[in-house]
Automatic annotation (TrEMBL):
This is Outer membrane beta-barrel protein. InterPro entries: OMP_myx_plus_Proteobacteria. Residues 1-26 form the signal peptide. Residues 31-51 are annotated as: Disordered. Keywords: Signal. It comes from Pleionea mediterranea. It comes from the Bacteria.
């Protein structure tokens, strides 16, 4: 009778110990588990693991870059819409000096031949218009590269580009008069390689014209041109 009571009492004591301390039960189970039963190695857990280094193949792109050339010289051609005289062929010379990556100074010299005016078309032989219809201008502008970027031609060719504004002034010779001219416009340049560029420009030449009848009015002469230039 006494031995039965002792076994019951011992069982209750052991049960209360494991209930009050669950970590003790886990430690006891780990101590009795063999490496084969747990399926884990007894090696230290702080062993450094291998780091995955992917091998990336970098794509080589031959970009058109301006090395140290600050000067650009080119020829341009296009169309000049002379107010009241229609559109005429335009050609000229353009020179740029790049102050930095954002700003440049531009000098232009252009020439065109005006056609018949609206008065000459309505009254042939009666309109008093000068025989000198050569339209020539010279101007100096300040340019601002506002949107530099890149253009991709296919998968393997990338060219540097820039969208720019120009603002300046100059002199226009037309109908035996020389007039002060305000010039403003925009353009887009693409560098074909490190020394050759192609540009598209549009701008307005605004000046006051005095007609033979004595009338003076502001004229707007729109230019659209393309140019091919070299850097040096």
């Amino acid at each position: 009778m006494d031995s039965r009571i002792q076994r019951i009492f011992l069982t209750l004591c052991l049960t209360s110990v494991f209930i009050m301390s669950p970590d003790a039960f886990a430690q006891a189970k780990t101590a009795f588990d063999s490496p084969a039963e747990s399926g884990e190695s007894r090696e230290p857990s702080n062993k450094p693991q291998d780091i995955y280094n992917p091998e990336l193949e970098r794509q080589k792109i031959d970009e058109a870059l301006i090395d140290d050339e600050d000067f650009e010289l080119g020829l341009f051609f296009g169309t000049l819409s002379i107010e009241d005289f229609g559109a005429s062929e335009l050609y000229g010379l353009r020179f740029n000096y790049f102050i930095n990556e954002d700003f440049f100074v531009q000098a232009n010299a252009g020439s065109a031949k005006a056609g018949l005016s609206s008065a000459e078309q309505l009254f042939p032989g009666n309109a008093v218009i000068s025989n000198d219809k050569d339209y020539q201008y010279y101007d100096v502008n300040l340019g601002w590269n506002v949107l530099p970027g890149e253009a991709f031609l296919g998968d393997d060719i990338a060219v540097n580009t820039s969208f720019y504004f120009v603002l300046g002034a100059g002199t226009t010779s037309f109908l035996d008069n020389k007039e002060f001219t305000l010039v403003y416009g925009a353009g887009y340049r693409a560098l074909i390689n490190d020394w050759l560029a192609f540009s598209v420009d549009t701008r307005n030449h605004r000046f006051n014209t005095e007609y033979p009848a004595g009338e003076v009015k502001a004229t707007h002469n729109l230019e659209f041109s393309m140019s091919l230039s070299v850097f040096f």
